[in-house]
Amino acid sequence: MSDTDFIRKFTPQFGYQIYFTTPEAGAELDEVLDQFLQPMHSPNYRRKKVQAEDGKMSSWVLEGRLEASLRRQIEARRAGKLPPAPSERELDYYLSQYRIGGVGPALNWYKTRTLNILEEKAAQLPLFPSHIPALHLPAELDAALPPSMGLLPSVLRCFPGGNLEVKILPKGDHWCLQDEKVRNIVTETLADWIERVLAGKWRPTEGVTTSTL
């Protein structure tokens, strides 16, 4: 089964990744790169857009949605109807870096997924050592990587020692580290968890431990 067929059958929330593997994706993204990067690296954009959508940014992940939106933006820009995104320190930095070589090279990760899977299978990687604590912080509103994905049997089989702890980030989405409401929670949760481990207070449990922050 090809990657595309697998996504369509089992993980439709990865539909946007089908577009990332196409030959035209890099050039199209470069043309409206400021618009594409705003949800990730513009606090001002996130403040207005995400709040207006009540934290939900799910429509972009399904097959065909992202490229349709991008192509409308490209048409508007070529017609002089789409101004550049407002200048912001973080957004400007990422734009400057991506514009050095374009987005295309970064998309190669999506094009080599089959090779990565075959390499991992050939390596016969061991299960995660049971004496090493593991923490997973999925985001409640992450449309591409919903918390349920981290609790699939195929994932849990990798942690047979009861050493996986899952803490769900409420109101977080795919870019929770750029979200002013959530990123401090991420930092505090990591710091508290590391302190607990270093203090010798962490113990493996029966199965996975799941909670909402």
Describe this structure in words.
The chain is mostly helical and 213 residues long. It has helices spanning 3-10, 15-20, 25-31, 33-41, 43-52, 65-78, 89-101, 108-111, 113-123, 153-156, 183-198; strands at 134-136, 164-168, 209-212. The chain has a three-stranded parallel sheet with strand order 1-2-3, with no helix packed on it. Strand 2, helix 11 (183-198) and strand 3 form a beta-alpha-beta unit. It starts with a helix and ends with a strand.
Layout of strands and helices, then pairs:
Blueprint lengths: L2 H8 L4 H6 L4 H7 L1 H9 L1 H10 L12 H14 L10 H13 L6 H4 L1 H11 L10 E3 L16 H4 L7 E5 L14 H16 L10 E4 L1
Number of strands: 3
Radius of gyration: 20 Å
Count of helix runs: 11
**Biggest β-sheet: strands ordered side by side in the sheet:** 1-2-3
Fraction of residues in H or I helices: 40-55%
N- to C-terminal distance: 38 Å
Averaging pLDDT over every residue, what do you get?
88
What structural class do the secondary elements suggest?
Answer: mainly alpha
Shape call: globular
Q: What is the chain-wise order of helices and strands?
A: HHHHHHHHHEHEHE
Strand content: 5-15%
Major beta-sheet overview: 3 strands, parallel
Short account of what is shown:
The protein has eleven helices and three strands.
Attribute tags:
single chain; 213 residues; mainly alpha; three-stranded parallel sheet; 11 helices; 48% helix; 6% strand
